[in-house]
């Protein structure tokens, strides 16, 4: 599985703010009958190899965004938790790649050189942008 759409890379705080406001306006037109709009979301952080590093789960990402940048994200759903509820059985900490493979028989490539690379580098490489966009797309695809 690979994201094949347009990637918009915001490099400044004002660009991020402008893109976020545009996204919110776009979402207003895409709500379903229940009033919900689903967005695939992924945040990449520089790997931290010290004990206690948190990087799995959207709840952890949203907490880090708030702690580090004061950005509050509400109503997040962790796909690992949703998969456990839907599939039953033993509780498992799913990764996006294993979840995508199990549910839709598609492979999400997770090259170590990108996974363990510096996601805070500036500017991000094309491969880093594609990696992050594919993760967000796969998250959205699994819910849809």
Automatic annotation (TrEMBL):
<dbReference type="InterPro" id="IPR036397">
    <property type="entry name" value="RNaseH_sf"/>
</dbReference>
<dbReference type="InterPro" id="IPR002562">
    <property type="entry name" value="3'-5'_exonuclease_dom"/>
</dbReference>
<keyword id="KW-0378">Hydrolase</keyword>
<dbReference type="GO" id="GO:0005634">
    <property type="term" value="C:nucleus"/>
</dbReference>
<dbReference type="GO" id="GO:0003676">
    <property type="term" value="F:nucleic acid binding"/>
</dbReference>
<keyword id="KW-0460">Magnesium</keyword>
<dbReference type="GO" id="GO:0008408">
    <property type="term" value="F:3'-5' exonuclease activity"/>
</dbReference>
<dbReference type="InterPro" id="IPR051132">
    <property type="entry name" value="3-5_Exonuclease_domain"/>
</dbReference>
<keyword id="KW-0540">Nuclease</keyword>
<dbReference type="GO" id="GO:0046872">
    <property type="term" value="F:metal ion binding"/>
</dbReference>
<keyword id="KW-0539">Nucleus</keyword>
<protein>
    <recommendedName>
        <fullName>3'-5' exonuclease</fullName>
    </recommendedName>
</protein>
<keyword id="KW-0479">Metal-binding</keyword>
<dbReference type="InterPro" id="IPR012337">
    <property type="entry name" value="RNaseH-like_sf"/>
</dbReference>
<dbReference type="GO" id="GO:0006139">
    <property type="term" value="P:nucleobase-containing compound metabolic process"/>
</dbReference>
<keyword id="KW-0269">Exonuclease</keyword>
<dbReference type="Pfam" id="PF01612">
    <property type="entry name" value="DNA_pol_A_exo1"/>
</dbReference>
<feature type="domain" description="3'-5' exonuclease">
    <location>
        <begin position="54"/>
        <end position="142"/>
    </location>
</feature>
């Amino acid at each position: 599985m690979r994201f094949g759409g347009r990637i918009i890379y915001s490099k400044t705080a004002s660009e991020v703010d402008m893109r976020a406001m545009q996204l919110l306006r776009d979402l207003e037109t895409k709500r379903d009958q229940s009033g919900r709009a689903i967005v695939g979301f992924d945040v990449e952080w520089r790997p931290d190899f010290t004990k206690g590093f948190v990087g799995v789960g959207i709840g952890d990402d949203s907490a880090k965004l708030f702690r580090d940048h004061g950005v509050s994200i509400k109503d997040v759903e962790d796909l690992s938790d949703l998969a456990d509820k839907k599939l039953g059985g033993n509780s498992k900490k799913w990764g996006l790649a294993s979840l995508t493979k199990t549910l839709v028989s598609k492979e999400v490539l997770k090259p170590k050189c990108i996974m363990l690379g510096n996601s805070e580098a500036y500017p991000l490489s094309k491969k880093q942008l594609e990696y992050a966009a594919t993760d967000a797309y796969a998250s959205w695809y699994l819910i849809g």
